[in-house]
Structure prediction request, 178 residues.
Amino acid sequence: MSREMIVLAFDSEEKAEEVLDSIKSVQHQGFMRLEDTVVVRKDAAGEVHAHNAVDKTTKEGITAGGLIGLFVGAVFGGPVGMMLVGGLAGGAVGALMNRGVDNNFIKDVSESIQPGTSALFIVVRSAQADVAMAALRQYEGKVLHTTLSEDAEVQLQRALSGHNPLPATGENAPKIEE
Prediction:
């Protein structure tokens, strides 16, 4: 399974949330699968506000961890064991499944952006690149970090700069697939 991390910066506090709404629309239409998203805003006073959307991975971790914890707790001690051992086992499974955006990385980026701006962190499982680029073309922003290929990153920056992305066909088309 391929996953790509993309971090974008915007010149207003509200813009990252607007872009996330557009990306979620693309996801709801079936053209993209997101694993995690985080919006960071730095207000005019320099205070950082982060919003980590509950993602599929987190939901899977909570569900799997809870079920395994319930089973392990029941086997090793009845009701008290279900609470103690079950909680520990559930937490461990949830932590193992956490593959989203690293909190230390979020903190580092948050410190680097200016007051009155925002950043959007996206972990993408799969995407139809041309549709995703079209959704981003209406926004101006800057690519801070990606795990995309160099060509795909250039196309993303061009889309966020108001330029049409470079034509991509065949093997040169950026793809993110599971």
Observations:
- Residues 57-97 form one domain.
- The chain has two domains: 4-54+100-172, 57-97.
- The longest helix spans residues 56-75.
